[in-house]
Design goal:
Strand content: under 5%
Distance between the termini: 52 Å
Shape: globular
Number of helices: 9
Oligomer: single chain
Largest sheet: none
Number of strands: 0
Amino acid sequence: MRGFISFYRKRILRITEFLVIFLIVPILLFTKVIDVSFFPILLLGAIIFMIQLIRDPSFRLKRLWNWGKARKSIGRILLYFVPVALLMTLVVYFWEPDHLFYLPRNHPWLWLGLLVSYPLFSVIPQNIAFRAFFVHRYRKLFQSNSTIILASATMFAFGHIIFHNWLAVVLTFIGGILFTKRYIETKSLVASIIEHSLYGVWLFTCGLGVFFTEQVV
């Protein structure tokens, strides 16, 4: 009986933790109850999550790198990326032509800085949080790969409500499915970081990035 109670107590605590981190915090940021920029919170969270993973003996640290699997996945990553990048460009061309390649045309130095800073300070922390930490920490709550991928993508998209833009939420849901699936298939966080970086950098390059900045609120 004591073991039964302990099991459900741990499960309730884990569900509560999940709801606070991935549901309540984005709502507080969205409503400006917590009136700070999203990125310091993301970086702090990623550091805490990384420490948690490193200290967890059941987590295989190889998943943070696993370059062999990541290298083998590059061809498949590019196979998906090239047609999607073309589609993204066409969407901007027909929908918001004034935004097409806006950054490289008008702010080349800002664009070049973004090519470096975006993967380092946005993609890596997001993949630590929504791929490595999320999949390991909440695997038992969602059981199968398909449900954990869907849950991760849903929370990834929900976290982008802070931009007050439905397109950001839709695109990150689709991206979340792709990136989490890649992480689970390759057992390599690097693989999902590479893929996420490609899409993110191109998004800002072709002009869709306007929907992922807090200035669009």
